[in-house]
Amino acid sequence: MVTTFGLSSSTAAIAVPVNPEISSSPLTDISADGLDEIGARASSESTTTASNRGLINVPGLLRADNGSTAQNASAGPLAPQDGAFEAANTGLTDSSEESAEGDAPALGEPDESTTESEDPESSESSESSEPDATDDPVVGSVQEETEDGTSIAAISEVVDVPSGNPSIVGVTYEGDTDVSFEVRQKTGGEWGAWADLEIENIDEGGNGTEPFIVSDAEGVQLRVLGAADAPAETELVLVDPKSSAADAAAVEENQPVLPPQADAGDESAAPSDEDASDSAEGAETAEVPAADAANAASADSASVKNASYVPGNSSVQNTAVKKVDKPSIGSRKSWGANENLRNGSADYASSVKAAVVHHTAGANGYSAGDVPSILRGIYSFHTQGRGWNDVGYNVLADKFGRLWEGRAGGVSKAVIGAHAAGYNTGSFGISVMGSYDKSAPPQKTIDAVNHAIAWKLSLDGVSAADKTTLGGKRVRTVIGHRDVGQTACPGAAFYSKMGGMRSAIEKMQDGGDTPDDKKDDEKKQDEDKKKDDKKDDKKDDKKKDDEKKSKTPIEEKYEGNVEQLGKPSGKEFKIAGGLGQKYEKGHIYYTKATGAHIVRGAIDGVVNEKLLKQIGFPKADEKDGLKDKGVYQPFTKGSVHYTKATGAHATTGILQKYWKDKGYENGHLGYPTSDLTVKDGRAEQSFQGGRLVWAEGYGTTEFSAEGDLNAGVEDLNPTDGGDSGDPGEGPSEEPTVEPSEEPTTEPTEAPSEEPSAEPSEEPSAEPTKTAEPKPTKTAEPKPTRTAEPKPTKTAEPKPSKKPEKTPEQKEEEKRADIIAEAKKHMGVPYRWGGTSPSSGWDCSGYTQYVYGKNGIDLPRNTSAQKAAGEVISAKEAKPGDLIWIPGHIGIISETKGQMYDAGSTRTNTSKRSYNWMLNRGAVFIRVI
Q: Which range is the signal sequence, renumbered to this chain (predicted)?
């Protein structure tokens, strides 16, 4: 049965309302009709690669490594249809270029014995091939295997696709899996080859595959390969994004970065040879003419919530990098994005330090007018099918050289996308629509991608020639998706262009021409500007001469402000690399770079030499008119804000950047209420609405003003705002676990054994018999009385009692009890500050309760719980140990790579992967 539901679209987004439709159907069983389709059991070029692909940063390393396919991958020469494996794995890097890390091998080394493949488009050739004789038999009937011996876990019937516009197809499922997914299209009554649908789990929303573009087809079919069953709740998802009369106008208004190679005035003009070879499905539709003016992308007004920052300045600052002009980028509104479909607001990094290049996968035979429809389809699949917050990519490029805004939040800002698991923060994800394993995108598309990356990286002074650290890994600043994940993306042919792309981007950043060559009048403007600059230089020289006069800059500033400053006190003095002068009602501070500025009132009361060294000298006088009658003064590296209620406090650095993105005093944080403290690799400052903590290696975490409840950050998980956690930063008292364990085990049991066994026997016999003087015979009963009972009464019970259990046994029992207690409470609602299963709890409330039930008293907050135990390595971690990052904590489960935790209102109390915590440098703690 197919369940269909409509998605409402914002009429403000596009001229003609469009209602995308999503259809979903189960993909957990083998459809008899589907298996009877011609080529349903055909092997495919992707079978080998899919069975051996494991996405890095994905729970359980989702791999299809059943015995049969694993053997096929290494059993010598491949069958003819598998020859494409060689093509897919050669030419991955430019011969003159290093890999992303400089020394890492390209994904997949070709087998020297592999021969060139026949046409992969023909499914008949693959049907006639025989399984390799060396393959071991696979459990199941012959009908439930592909021709190369791979088990078919599930296969769909033929699914009809919409006519008249492209559609998007993909798979969603629950939990981890060891299977792979494949799709094929039916066009003109003929089936194409099976193609791999790569698993794309980004820790945001549910598990599933990448979206696959279906164009000019009448039907599709999907299958699940692998010895294991299809995962729970596996569904085939089909998105019909519909077409709109506004699509053509959107395409016309969004000017390609380079002029089309065909005649711009003739839509029927034949495509170039490069464009014609671009499509795996057939000939490319001719270019749609571009408008004279570019349609500048509008910055989305999404509010900033749950922002996660990388520590310090994340960009690779390079003074040689020149600002590159922004290319034309079509806005979300232009392609018809319904903003009601977004599942949250944009998250921001402190800066962008690398660009990651992708392809979307699927058909390349789309027309220019199809592009807005495809964008809506990808958007609906990501948000409604997968449950993501928004489109995964920051920007998308089509094969016609046009750029389009993807994820909301503003293309000029450091919006955190969902395109590379573990590497989203601080990266710019750009994806080209289509598949590029066999042929690269047209040059005009590569030029557009180069221009977008050159512009984006130049905003933060990042050079394409540099390397940086992204997600804990040392990589180039311009990389392909496969450089940070075991995936074929962006396709072998496209990836082979990366070396030339870096060189082109570097040239743009060095001041070379962008793909949009400068017009004559722009060149003239540049020349005029150079002349003006020379005149300005002469003026500056004259100004320097004029400054050589009797009065100092501080004295000149004082002349017009005598009344508000009062009389001077003493002489000008040197301070923090500049000059200062004290007056009755304040100071004037001066440096050559900032000039002379007045500091008075409450702000003057906090400014001293130490603070000037921290936030620099004032670059303007005090300004008022802020919320709650507040005033502030800007300094070169920070600012000082004051209200009567909060006093005067300085902000600077990464915490000020976070506060800025939250709206300064107009946001939920309000004004600062304490000074900044920096100690031992950590910075902290309190505000009216929360407390900000930056820890080296973890970034900035926000807590409530009281310091005991999370405020504004429900989930620290990088893809949907993160997993919530308690505050509580900094060391606590000495661990209380070991002292409380010792008295309740050995000391209490040993004393209770000895007195109750031997002492109670002997005193009751000896005193009563020794009162009689004579009995010589009493010596005989004594041995019979005391020898026999003693071994039977005292020796037997001892081995069966707890003291005889080894410490290892006791520890295992304790761990088993903790896991059992943790399991009892699955599904308990998440509640900030909660500590009870009846009313809900947060992460540390949950761990405190579970351990408390097992005799271990943990402190209330996450960092105190961390300090209450011993830090251990990941290899040492066992079920029942804790896993911690600043602001969140969980209990290691009995399943490898998973934990029990109270994560957020989205996850509540559940068992899930802790991989996202590892990406943030998680620490394992032992309290047992």
A: none
Distance of alpha carbon 615 from the chain centroid = 32
What radius of gyration, in Å, describes the C-alpha atoms of the chain?
35
Q: List the domain range (segments joined by +) for residue 455.
A: 246-263+271-296+314-509
3 state SS of 53: coil
Instruction: Give 10-residue mean pLDDT values along the chain (928 residues).
Output: 34 53 88 88 60 36 33 32 34 37 37 35 36 36 70 91 86 85 89 86 78 89 87 88 84 70 35 37 35 35 36 44 91 90 88 93 86 91 87 93 94 92 92 90 94 94 92 92 87 92 92 58 63 70 61 93 93 95 96 96 95 95 93 96 96 92 90 91 89 80 60 34 30 30 34 35 38 44 46 49 77 93 93 88 93 92 88 93 91 94 87 87 91
Specify if 824 maps to a domain: yes
Task: Answer yes or no: is 582 within a domain.
Answer: yes
- 483 with 560, same domain: the answer is no
Spatial separation of the C-alpha atoms in residues 705 and 690, rounded to whole Å: 4
Residues 484 and 584 in one domain: no
What stretches of 203-272 show up as alpha helix (H) in DSSP?
246-253
Measured CA to CA, the distance from residue 734 to residue 870 in angstroms comes to: 11
Tokens 């962006």, located at residue: 490
CA 49, 54, 60, 62 torsion: positive or negative? negative
**∠ CA 308-309-312 to the nearest 5 degrees?**
170
Q: How far apart are the first and last CA of the chain?
A: 51
Given a contact cutoff of 8 angstroms between Cβ atoms, the answer to whether 642 and 631 are in contact is yes
Q: Whole-angstrom Cα distance, residue 280 to residue 436?
A: 9
Which one-letter DSSP state was computed for residue 804? G
* Structure token pair of residue 668: 């939920």
Cβ 147 vs Cβ 135: under 8 Å: no
Counts of helices then strands in the chain (DSSP H, E) = 26, 40
Q: Are 564 and 622 members of one domain?
A: yes
At 495, is the secondary structure helix, strand, or coil?
helix
Alpha helices in 853-918 (DSSP H): 862-867, 915-918
- Identify the domain boundary among 688, 710, 728: 688
Contacts of 520 (CB under 8 A, 6+ apart): none
- What values do phi and psi take at 649, rounded to 5? -145, 140
Report how far Cα 738 is from the mean position of its chain's Cα atoms.
37
The DSSP-derived string for 16-46 is S----EEEEEE-SSB-HHHHHSTTTT---TH
| CB 865, CB 925: distance < 8 Å | yes
Residue where the block lists tokens 């003006």? 532
